[in-house]
Amino acid sequence: MSKYLDCLRVAIDDKGKLITWILSSIFIGITLSFNLVPNYTYIWVFPLMVIIVFLFLTYLCSAFNDSGSISVNRNNTGDIITGIVTTVMVLLGNIAYWLAYYPGGFNLDALGQWDQAHGYWELDNWHPIITTIIYWGLTRISDTLAFCIFSQILLFSLVFGVFMYNLTKLGISRGLLIVISACVAINPAVCMNNVCLIKDVYFTIGVMWLSVLLAKIYASDGYWIDKWRNIAHIVIASVFVMLTRHNGFLFVFPMFVMLLVNYREKFKRLLFSLIFTVVGLALIVGPVFEIAHVRRHENVLGEIIGIPMGAMVNAYVNDYDNTPEEVKNLLETIAEREIWNKSYRTGEWDSCKWDMDTDIILQETGLKNILRMFFDTAKAYPEAVFQSVRENTRIVWQLVGRIKWAPWVYIESPNEYEIKENHVPVAESIVGKIIKKSYSIELAPFIWEIGIQLTLLSICGALISAAGSSKGHVFLVPVFTYAIGTMLLLSGPNYRYFYYISVIELPFLAILLTDLFKKRETNGKNEI
How confident is the model at residue 351 (pLDDT cuts 50, 70, 90)? Predict the structure, then answer.
């Protein structure tokens, strides 16, 4: 008990620890509450659960409170064999899924980008133009969907192998990294996305690329950033991530904030990196897009009203009489009541948002008025708002339950390119069995539930904070800001927005928990 109280006092005195534990407690507490509370009647459980989680985390962290500062093993020699083995493992696993779904997934979005790559549509950035350019380049080599899919899984595997190679320089064992690679290689939540022609694959590759650079900075106590070529490296990687997804800034900017906070002795160079990143991105989406006649994504800001609009529609459809008149008027200027009742499904904002131009709604109504109407609706019919928010954010908080967001690998048909399914029966049979097993009660939480993954990362964040290390949060905070921000922006059951977490979760845990349980002496200021 005395050790627990000492830990609590330290947390209160140490603002960094206190903030980390409070944020971890809020996230885990809300996650648990959403899983336990079916309706608004039990809303009081939420603050109670946050307090219980805070007390539990304090107890858990008391075991590490006397650990002192964590230091990593700055070892210049990496294990190239591990890098090669893990690359081959992940590539073979992805090839199995590719053959099972040969030539790969080709949805309506991919068809639009394919048309642009072949010169049939004007270039636009609705779906990131950088991936369209990549498809254009690949189709100049071989104008087939199969080649494009193989190229992206090859690149994914190579970057993953480089990531594993760099983790060996942190002293993480070959055996552990091979186990992690095996988990990624057969994981249907990863591979079913990798074999689709979607921007999220290149976003995931970009995040892995940034993770390699974060590992280099972490291992060198920031000295890696001393070289200008390394600044250029992190700038290019950051711009790439933000170009591959419009919400990529939710990962990149928090990453820079955490770097600036935790490596203050490198503040100027990190600030230069951030400034160059912003300027580089602005130049591309500004003058470069203008010169290339790329039409911009016109509905980016409109995405921010997803949760408020979803809640108002939910009240409108399920309790019309109690819905505020102003809300009724707004929704009925968009579509007739019959259309709302027919198209809207609770928890699936996508079921109706494409029937409206949310950017125009935002401009004409104003964000302030939309939020005011949202809160008016919450007062008039709190149950409808609670259910809407709960279901629209389920993909991030669910720990156990029916999986509603497994990827659907298919080919948009008909298409003028005569792209057709040609699955390889043996691979399809093997992969089918793996996928079926992944839905089992013992495996599904660890394969498909992002809530489990984020909860484990959140607990890890509290533990490393207790052990006196805040630098490990450069890995964790960007993941949470992206997950929570994307959950609020692109609400609904779509796993591909988040599947990169299934790729980097285990490597991040390996980095931080290895240092937590096996503290090492510093070997100097060597660069990886």
Answer: low
Q: How many CA atoms lie within 13 A of 175 on its CB side?
A: 0
Domain extent, residue 152, equals: 73-197+408-443
Residues 6+ apart with CB under 8 A from 56: none
Within its chain, how far is the Cα of 356 from the centroid? 26
- Judge residue 245's burial from the number of C-beta atoms within 10 Å of its C-beta, 0-12 exposed, 13-18 middle, 19 or more buried: buried
- Reported as a single tens digit per residue, the pLDDT across 492-525 is 778 999 999 999 999 999 998 887 776 544 433 4
Residue 207 belongs to some domain of the structure: no
CB contact at 8 A, 117 and 212: no
Same-domain check for residues 429 and 368: no
DSSP 266: G
- Number of structural domains (the chain) is 2
**Peptide bond connecting 414 to the previous residue in cis, omega within 30 degrees of 0:** yes
319 and 431 together in one domain: no
In degrees and rounded to multiples of 5, residue 468 shows phi and psi of 95, 20
Find all residues with CB under 8 Å of 293, minimum gap 6, and list them: 122, 123
User: In 368-384, which positions are buried (b, 16+ CB within 10 angstroms) versus exposed (e)?
Assistant: eebeebbebbbebbbbb
- Nearest-angstrom CA–CA distance, 289 and 129: 9
Which of 367, 368, 391, 389 has the alpha carbon at shortest distance from 378? 389
